[in-house]
Amino acid sequence: MKPLAVAVIGNPNTGKSTLFSALSGLQTRVGNYPGVTVEKKIGSVRWDGQQVLLIDLPGTYSLSPRSPDEMVVVDVLLGHQPDTPAPDAILLIADASNLERHSYLLSQVLDLGRPTVLVLNMMDVARRRGIRIDAEKLSERLGIPVVLTEAHRRKGLEHIPSAVRKAIESARPRHEVFPEKFRQVATQLAEHWPRHDGVAPERFLVERLLLDVDGEVERRYVKHAGWPLGERLREARQELLQHQIRVPAVEAQARYAWVRRLLDGVYQRPSQQELTWSDRVDQFLTHRWVGLLVFAVLMFLVFQAIYQWAEPLMGMIESVQDAVGSLVSSLLPPGPLRSLLVDGVIAGVGAVLVFVPQIALLFFFIAVFEDCGYMARAAFVMDRLMAQVGLSGKSFVPLMSSFACAIPGIMATRVIENRRDRMVTILVAPLMSCSARLPVYLLLIGAFVPDRYWLDGRISLRAVVLFAMMSLGAVIAVPVAWLLKKTWFRGETPPFVMELPSYKWPSWRTVAWRVYERVWAFVRRAGTLILATTILVWAAGYFPADRQPLDQITAQIEQLQSQLNASPDDAEIQQRFEQLSQERDRLASQAIAASFLGRAGHMLEPVVRPLGWDWRIGVAVLASFPAREVVIATLGTVFSLGSADDSSSGGLVAALHEASWPDGTPLFNLPVALSLMVFFALCAQCASTLIIMRRETNSWIWPVFTFVYMTALAYFGALVTYQLGIRWLV
Amino acid sequence: MQPSDLSAATTVTLDCLAVGQVAEILEVQGQDAIAVRMLEMGLVEGEPIWLLGQAPLGDPLEFSLRGYRISLRRKEARRVRVRLLPQPTSSGACRS
Q1: Domain of A375?
Q2: What CATH fold (topology level) applies to the domain B9-84?
Q3: pTM to 2 decimal places
Q4: In this complex, do A282 and B69 lie within 8 Å of one another by their Cβ atoms?
Q5: DSSP state of A614
Q6: Of the residues A110, A143, A169, which one is the last residue of a structural domain?
Q7: Phi then psi for A5, rounded to 5 degrees?
Q8: Interface of chain B toward chain A, CB-CB under 8 angstroms
Q9: Which of A51, A207, A665, A719 has its C-alpha lying 20 to 30 A from A481's C-alpha?
């Protein structure tokens, strides 16, 4: 039997995702619709033995598409979306406490003429607000089944399957909300719509064409159909205007008039001018001073969580990774296989898992804020500020989170419905100074910035440099965002017309589900690519050098190590051990010089010379493509320090101070250190960020664009820094 | 205020309401995405709307409409023409 396809649609803030996950459980496949940034989510369940595919659609206020992203929803509902089953029924989720406005979408969905079930969710909230609903009468007037639910308590969900079946079995007449004249004009316009295989166009699309001035339907169909349709469309709108029917206002007027008739006597809410419990909370949370203070405290909490609370968890993951690495090393002799497993595979898996604590913590807070209604207020409070750079308040939380890590930050941009705003936010997020840059700054500042103080020791030069490096990206992001909004993502200012949902207690089930879903999506869909990148960069640094002498020495060292463990006081073994270690570090540095990565570094030397770098710094920067902090370990290797895990100790700092150009002049000085730091502040050396960007934008164009623009910024930033530095600082 | 020019004098744009003031919507101007979104959200002729407050930085504004709360930027609210409804509190902020 063919599986039953049911599309699930609703306004934002209706508890739709909670309801969807309660209905579909763990059996959900997540992907992207081709060519757009809309997430495709299909759940598979069994209702009385029959297989049912639940298609989750993004939350939307209306079905009048103004972009390809919004058109996907219409295409799926009409069954025009390839590789998505045409829905046999539509499940419309509405907020029972806000039915009047949500009935607008209902009225549009009924126009599709498909079997529909109305789910009135959040019945508990409605009851508490003193709203009374006569569901039976409502169902009678609509001619479709109505189900009452409280999704976060899983109440009422059991009635959905039978309601869907009932909707499919019973036919209902087409629902008409528009004036007679409008319908006539639409029918005439349909005549000019090109027919494919003699099939008449969907009435819904014809009406959308007429109603949405410069909408996506017009863009798609009139452009393709060409002359007759475009001309007729202008005439049709002209004719409507002569009959006092104004587009687009007529749609809202007609639909809300229908809503009024529909709800009259079956839906009663207390009089409007009465402050609810939620309004009182809101007066407090959006108060001029208290509101800002609460906002600042909450944001600090979120930031603290992803910046600091995640730290021990990340440390745990890293120590497990080290333990597994040592275990594998003790079981296998030194050689390509061991190196692949330890430095490629295990390091790669670790590189994926290390992000999980930050993602989980950020989405925990986002889920709580969203579920209790604060997320919309955060956008409300910050909108004025973000509007200065052409974004909206919704970009604040993603950008702030990016100061800890751009990956959860970019994943959090899903709260931004407007595509252009979301894209600009994604593209500037990696400029925010993330926690992976910090070790690089700390190393270089500690090694090369003089320990000087001003104002009786209250201001430290090192702290000033650190602060400058941490703010550089955010400062640069302002003109970048402005420029992107002026060029690539130009267009009408997106409306910030947004519902401020009433406050409620968050449902822990919903929160836990959101966190699980985001973490799993990251591990499943970005994890494999991050792993692959780590292995590729490992291979580039490993091959094609002759590593046999290195492997032999490593084997000897390990043997000596076990002897040393047995008799730690043996001075002879100790001496031999140190000799061999030095020899190994020398060979390792030679091996990386002879590798693909080393050759690329040599070739790049003329390019990085103006930044004050030699080929070795170039190699370290190249090798840090998977993640910025890798640069420290690679610097250790190229400057003959072995695998410098002791970077925090003096070893690496001393090695950097000793490093010199072939003519004996020191390689590193303050301008070089500053140029390297500026480079890291602005570069996109983080494969995981680029990969998550590809996942969220559903295209390789944007990660490539980001890599190019950020690398260019980083290069010129470093160039200017070094060239000014050698003139002013040395 | 003369009773005769009541209707003319009380026609203002939505951004001119004082906190707590109620008005009746007359028209949303324009036909671009912003106008369409406001219409879809229920800012339709004849509907009462009530200013609840403003964001800490002065923009956007929070209104009550059709039993729910909506946020509009001042720039957006300026495009909605409304008629002030008689109420006990003082007059609108934009009238001279």
Answers
A1: 275-432
A2: SH3 type barrels. (2.30.30)
A3: 0.83
A4: yes
A5: -
A6: A169
A7: -105, 130
A8: 22, 27-28, 31-45, 47-48, 50, 52-60, 62, 64, 66-73, 75-76
A9: A719
